[in-house]
Design a protein that fits this description.
single chain; alpha/beta; 2-enoyl-CoA Hydratase, Chain A, domain 1; six-stranded mixed sheet; three-stranded mixed sheet
Length: 268
Amino acid sequence: MSAHSQFKAEVDGHIAWLTMNRPEKRNTMGVNFFKELSEHLANFDQDTAVRVVIIKAEGKSFTAGTDLEEAGSLLSGQAADQREATRKKILKLQEGITRIENCSKPVIAAIHSHCIGGGIDLISACDIRIASADAVFSIRETPMGIIADLGTLQRLPYIIGHGWFTELALTGRDFNAEEALQMRLITRICANRDELYAEAKMLADQIAACPPLTVQGVKEVVLYSRDHGIDAGLQYVAQKNAAALPSEDVIEAVTAFMEKRTPTFKGK
């Protein structure tokens, strides 16, 4: 791992821990952040041992959002050709966040303290979000005169509903873990970071204990149905199951049930 790496990546059994590792900058997100994020997720996608990814962070904050010092050049007056270059840079950064959603393995966000601006983009692309009691969230771009452009405005309404989303997007106000739980942005609140990571591991272990190809198929069908509607989603899942069943893992699940033992799934 490079001394300037934005992340630490560790694989423990079937769980990959991806830790944001820029605590001195409160894990702010610059160009290298998105590049490395995409690279790590691509590696996890290819690693058949990995069945679940957990994203967490070192330091006082989960992330304070976009690195404004690095982004300063994007905010200055620009000629038309430079504005087009900026558009392409934004699209490239979007790819890093979308890589979370497109990762075939479920991704859990374990959030502590500040999750601001670009942090909302990041966790909105995750499959499951849990937080410690000290978590604080904000779509901070709005008060700063910026339209959030890395996925919050596209993904968050599907997670928390239009009413909550519109209020938070238009005000940019802070909201805490209790409110995040109420609006279903997160599914669990943990007392502290130790409990947060233990809870994340417990969820990951439960997911990893299921047949991995089935878990990946569930994620794929959920996202497809979100983007294409109920009828298309029903057609899609029928096609997937017709192509996949019966699998070795299904046979193992039935056999283990009949033999009253724990199944061993191989992703086949």
